[in-house]
Design brief:
Layout: E1 2-3, E2 28-33, H1 37-48, E3 53-56, E4 70-71, H2 73-82, H3 85-90, E5 94-103, E6 106-117, H4 120-133, E7 137-139, E8 143-147, E9 154-160, E10 163-174, E11 191-193, E12 199-206, E13 217-223, E14 226-233, E15 237-244, H5 246-252, H6 255-265, E16 280-284, E17 287-289, E18 293-294, E19 297-299, E20 305-306, H7 314-334, H8 340-366, H9 370-382, H10 384-395
Parallel strand pairs: 2-3, 2-10, 3-7, 5-13, 10-19
Antiparallel strand pairs: 1-7, 4-6, 5-6, 8-9, 9-10, 11-17, 12-15, 12-16, 13-14, 14-15, 17-20, 18-19
Bound molecules: flavin-adenine dinucleotide.
Length: about 400
C-alpha cells in the first residue's frame, strides 16, 4: 500500500494504492528504509522541512513488532516535538505509574515517572500517518536495498512481490532495525554481534488470558534464562516481551516454556496461555555496526547498534537518532555530501553508545547473574539514593 497525503484522513484509513512505477522520476531528497520509530520519525522531520521524502517498509502496515512498547520520558519528549504525543494518548495507550521488579524471590514495587504503554502497531501507524500528512510518500510490503551507484545520488532497489523499481536518492537513511537487511554488501558494513547475546521475543495476549497483569503497573521479572516485561497496553491487550537465552529455547522445548519458567522462578501470577500464541522473535540483540555512514547513507536507530532492552532505552535512542541526523539530511538535499559528515555521524553514534547505553549495558550484565542482582535490589531498600538512580536511569 502506498499512502498518499491527499487521500487519507486518519491513522487507520488506508487510501488507494499508487503504482510502484510512480515512485520513479527525479531523485528523492531522502529515501528511508524501515518505518519503525527511527524511520517514521525521520520521515516526519524531513517532510516537515519540505524535502521530497519516500518511506519504504518491508512489512504490511499496520504491523506488530517485538517490543515492550513502553515510552520513557525522553521518548515522550521527542514524540511531543514531532506533534504526535497527544494522538498517542488519545489512542487508548496506558499510563504506567509503578514498576513491580522481581529478581527470583526478591521483589520491589516502585513508583516511577509516568511511562506510556502503547502497541507498536498503534504507535508506528500514528507516526507514519503524520509523515504522510506532512507530505511524505509511504509504501509498505516493499523491501528496500542499497545498490551500487556511479552517480552523485544513491540507488535503491524497491521490491514488492514480483515487481521491482530502482529509485535515486540524494540521501538514504537505513532504519531497518536489527536486521540491517537493506545493506546488500555486508562486508562494506561490518557489525559485531555479541557472542552470548540474548534474543527478543514477544506476544500480545488478551486481558482475559493475562488478567493478573491488567492495570497501570509494569512487571519486570528476572530469571536465569532471561527476563520478561509484562504490562497492559491499548486495545485491551497485555504485552509480554522478553529477552531470553536462545540456547534455553532448545533445552526447554520452546519460547513459551522459557517465559513460563521465568514467571515460575519469580513466583509471579500465572498466565492462562492460549492454545496458539503468536510469538515473534528478533535476531541477537546485542550488536554494534562498526561503520554507520558512507557517502550519502546514514544508519539510524537499532541499525546502528543495540543492547538488551531492560531499561526501555531503545525507542528513545531511535527517536534521538532521527532528530540528530536531520541537519545532515537537509544539508545534502540543499547542497551536497561532504566526507566530514561520515565522521560526525560516527562520533555521534559512539557518544550515544558510551553515554546512553552505559546504564543499559550495566543492568544487562548484572541481571545475567540474578542472585547478585537480587542483592542490588535489596540494597535499594536500605539506600534510597541507589533506588532513585536506578529508577531515573531506567525510566527517564
Ligand atoms: C523484547 C524487547 C522489548 C523492548 N521493549 C522496549 C520498550 O519497552 N521501550 C523502548 O523504548 N524500547 C524497547 N525495545 C527496543 C525497541 O523495540 C527498539 O529499540 C526500536 O524498535 C528501534 O526502532 P527502529 O526504528 O530502529 O527499528 P524497528 O522498530 O525494528 O523498525 C525497523 C523497521 O524496518 C523494517 N525493515 C527491515 N528491513 C527492511 C528493508 N530492507 N526495507 C524496508 N523496511 C525494512 C522492519 O520491518 C521494521 O518495521 C525493546 C526491544 C525488545 C527486543
Amino acid at each position: 500500500m502506498i499512502f498518499n497525503n491527499r487521500e487519507k484522513s486518519g491513522p487507520n484509513h488506508l487510501p488507494s494504492a499508487l503504482q510502484l512505477a510512480e515512485l520513479k522520476g527525479g531523485a528523492w531528497d531522502v529515501v528511508i528504509l524501515g518505518a519503525g520509530v527511527a524511520g517514521a520519525s525521520a520521515a516526519i522531520l524531513s517532510a516537515k522541512h519540505g524535502l521530497r521524502t519516500l518511506l519504504v517498509e518491508a512489512k504490511p502496515f499496520p504491523r506488530e513488532k517485538v517490543c515492550g512498547g513502553c515510552l520513557n520520558l525522553r521518548s515522550q519528549g521527542s514524540l511531543k516535538r514531532l506533534g504526535v504525543l497527544n494522538q498517542i494518548e488519545l489512542a487508548g495507550s496506558i499510563r504506567i505509574d509503578s514498576m513491580h521488579l522481581q529478581i527470583l524471590a526478591t521483589s520491589v514495587n516502585w513508583t516511577v515517572p509516568a511511562m506510556i504503554s502503547v502497541r507498536r502497531s498503534t504507535l508506528d501507524t500514528i507516526l507514519v500517518d503524520e509523515a504522510v500528512t506532512q507530505g511524505c510518500k509511504f509504501i509498505d510490503s516493499a523491501h528496500g536495498s542499497l545498490i551500487a551507484s556511479e552517480s552523485n545520488t544513491r540507488s535503491v532497489r524497491i521490491q514488492k512481490q514480483d515487481q521491482s523499481v530502482v529509485v535515486e536518492a540524494k540521501c538514504v537513511l537505513v532504519a531497518s532495525g536489527l536486521t540491517r537487511s537493506p545493506l546488500k554488501n555486508p562486508t562494506n558494513w561490518p557489525a559485531v554481534v555479541h557472542e552470548d547475546s540474548r534474543i527478543g521475543v514477544q506476544c500480545m495476549l488478551s486481558e482475559t488470558h493475562a488478567a493478573a497483569y491488567v492495570g497501570t503497573q509494569l512487571h519486570m521479572l528476572v530469571g536465569k534464562n532471561g527476563y520478561a516485561g509484562i504490562c497492559s497496553t491499548d486495545g485491551s491487550f497485555v504485552d509480554v516481551a522478553a529477552a531470553i537465552d536462545p540456547a534455553s529455547i532448545q533445552t526447554l522445548g520452546g519460547i513459551e516454556q522459557v517465559v513460563r519458567g521465568i514467571l515460575e522462578e519469580c513466583d509471579a501470577p500465572p498466565i492462562q496461555w492460549p492454545e496458539f500464541i503468536p510469538w515473534m522473535a528478533t535476531p541477537a540483540l546485542t550488536r554494534n555496526s562498526s561503520r554507520v555512514a558512507e557517502r550519502c547513507v546514514f544508519l539510524i536507530g537499532d541499525a546502528i547498534g543495540y543492547v538488551e532492552p531492560f531499561t526501555g532505552e531503545g525507542m528513545s535512542w531511535a527517536l534521538a537518532s532521527a532528530e540528530a541526523v536531520m541537519p545532515h539530511v537537509i544539508e545534502i538535499a540543499h547542497k551536497e555530501w561532504n566526507d566530514r559528515m561520515a565522521d560526525q555521524w560516527s562520533d555521534w553514534a559512539v557518544r550515544q553508545r558510551i553515554q546512553k547505553q552505559k546504564t543499559c549495558r550495566w543492568i544487562a550484565s548484572r541481571i545475567r547473574r540474578p542472585r547478585g542482582a537480587a542483592w542490588v535490589l535489596q540494597a535499594c531498600n536500605w539506600f534510597p539514593p541507589l533506588r532513585a538512580t536506578i529508577i531515573r536511569k531506567t525510566t527517564q
